[in-house]
Amino acid sequence: DAGVIQSPRHEVTEMGQEVTLRCKPISGHDYLFWYRQTMMRGLELLIYFNNNVPIDDSGMPEDRFSAKMPNASFSTLKIQPSEPRDSAVYFCASSQWTGDRTEAFFGQGTRLTVV
Amino acid sequence: QKEVEQNSGPLSVPEGAIASLNCTYSDRGSQSFFWYRQYSGKSPELIMFIYSNGDKEDGRFTAQLNKASQYVSLLIRDSQPSDSATYLCAVNRDDKIIFGKGTRLHILP
Predict the structure, then answer these.
(1) What's the CA gap between A49 and A59, in Å, rounded?
(2) Contacts of A42 in chain B (CB under 8 A)
(3) What is the pLDDT along chain A (115 residues), one digit of tens a residue?
(4) What whole-number distance in Å separates Cα of residue B84 and Cα of residue B63?
(5) How far is A65 from chain B (nearest CA, A)?
(6) Which of B43, B51, B95 sits opposite A108 (nearest CB)?
(7) What is the C-alpha separation between B101 and B87, in angstroms, rounded?
C-alpha cells in the first residue's frame, strides 16, 4: 500500500480564499483523522471519522472549517474563508481498529500558508 | 490542564548515553499509549506502543507505563545522532488519538 496520501503538499493562498485539502487513507482503514500542527499548539486533533461518519469535530476551531468523507477512500478539509492564522501543517492520518493497538499512520502533510 | 503533557525541551544527551523522555496524561480512561518520532519537516512515525503497566522493550527503545500515576516514558539506550528529533507522546481514548506537544531531543556527537 502507498500509505496515506495527501494533496497538495504545499499551498499558498491569499486571505479570504477557499482552501481544500485532500486525503486518501490506507485501504481497509476504518478511522480517519485530521490534525493541524503549529509550533505554538503542537499537533491538534481537528476531527475524526469512523466508517466515513464524523465522530468528534470538537477540535475544529471555527465554522470556517469543514470536513467531509464521502467514501472510504477520500476525505477533504475545507477552510472558507482562509485567514493568516490558519497557516500550519495539516496532517491526515488513518488507522484500523485492532483493540489496544489502534495506531495512526500519517500522510506527508500539507503545508498551508495564508498571506 | 492539557490532556497529554510533555516537557518541550530541548533535551540534550551525549552520544552513547541514555535519553529519558516523559509524558503525563489526564484522562484515566486512556487505553493505549504511543511514542512517535518526528524529524524536522517530516510526518510523525510510530516507534513504540504500550497498553499494560510495566516495561516494553524493542531494540534500543523501552517504553514504560504507570497507569496509577498516569505516566508514560520512553528510554533510548546508546543514543545516536540519528535519534535527534521531536518525540510525541500520544494516548488513545475511545479511539480518539490525542498528542502531546512533543519533546525535542538533541544528541550531542
Answers:
(1) 13
(2) 88, 99-102
(3) 689 999 999 999 999 999 999 999 999 999 999 999 999 999 999 999 999 999 999 999 889 999 999 999 999 999 999 999 999 999 999 998 877 667 899 999 999 999 9
(4) 18
(5) 19
(6) B43
(7) 9
